[in-house]
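Extended Data, panel c. Modelled sequence:
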Amino acid sequence: MKTVNFPEFVWIWNQRLGQGTPAHHLRMARWLAARWHAHDPGLLLMAFRSSGKSTTVGLFCAWVLALNPDLRIMVLAADFALAKKMVRNVKRIIERHPLTSGLKPGRRDQWAADQFTVNRPGELRDPSMVAKGIGANITGSRAEIVICDDVEVPNTCDSAPKRADLRERLAEIEYVMVPGGTQLYVGTPHSYYTIYADRPRLESGEAAPFLDGFRRLEIPLLDAKGGSAWPERFPPERIGALRKRSGPNKFDSQMMLRPVNIADGRLDPDRLRLYEGDLSYAEGNGVPLLTLGGRRMVSASCWWDPAYGAPGKGDSSVVAAVFTDDQGEYWLHGIRYVTHDLAVTGIDEATQLCRQVAAFASELHLPAIHLETNGLGRFLPGLLRRELAVSGIACAVIEANSHRAKDQRIVDAFDAVLAAGALHAHRSVWSTPFIGEMREWQPGGKCRDDGLDAVAGCLLGQPVRLARPFGGAAPRPNWRPGGGIVAHSDFSL
């Protein structure tokens, strides 16, 4: 082939089709050409939906094969049909582009719908280009270029197990790539926990983004000034209609490339106000004082939603504590997913859980624990009181019975405080499943919500003022001013 750079290759193709070349297509082409010549091993191309990114990448495949017919390209997609679509597109380009006419082989068996082999000098086992679904077995295959075209779609990322499975399958690419090869990801984010994120999701255990170190090109539909990246195809009136029809979350995700949940979730953890300070307890002139971040705490609420399931299975047993300051703001200072150790003998599971909850109450100077007694929780109050007394912790146990549906309790508890920006959360909360629960939660959905239920109980429940010793323990100094006032809640206590 006569040597031309990739932007020229794209322009020639579009001229042959009688169409222009949009500015953002030239931007993609220049970037892909520069990264190819620089031999970058990892690339990520994100552009808004219907931007023509897959078409541009198909042209890129034809261009590199024209430069080096011995190259082998594997296309991975969320399903086989989508991967095969790109292979068919590249075949069409090779057949019709004036600079690739000599690549089409003479034998029909080398020109299949899902794979093909161009005329090349080398005798290689693998085809020039092959299509695979993300669930296919790729063991034994080899390629210089692996293109991951829309491997992240709702069906592969709408739950934590699916996201883990997707990452595990994508990790197999390392065994397909030859030394010096290139991975090219093409797509848009479909989840806050997207593989395309540029920052690690600490709450999911990530220490680095999945595509850490990859060179990135991001082309959202609207630039910083609100201008359209493709005004001929997406004028302002069409953008407005698209935003209204798809909803803000889907528009932000698919058109603006912002990692959010496409489903219209009710709880947004980005509205939590992160802080890192610790509780500070002091006494002055015999008056106890509990502060957090320089603010005086005036009340506290602790809620335990118990469960006896084996660790990692079934419902989680969660205890949470929320403090209220003298300005009426809320501080989620602690949340723990307590589990029992199956290897421990001589101490039953319920006692193990109660001891952890008692330690939690002692650590945070809590005056009372609301214990949800729906279901299995009705057996625990006496056991928890015993463990508190044995440990010398002056803390009441309040049996609570919730009447309303869990979804409604969660909405009622979180909506107002999140909208007002009045809920602070300690950094340690981000190392628990709670943040993930917030992002994934949908009313009526099947996502985990045990942590949400515990914090909702804290926000809706009311603190208890202790005026006498409990269980023979010395009374805990009352750091709460105006002790004795108890408000009503939506729970039966």
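The domain at 6-254 is CATH 3.40.50.300 (Rossmann fold). This feature is highlighted in the accompanying rendering.
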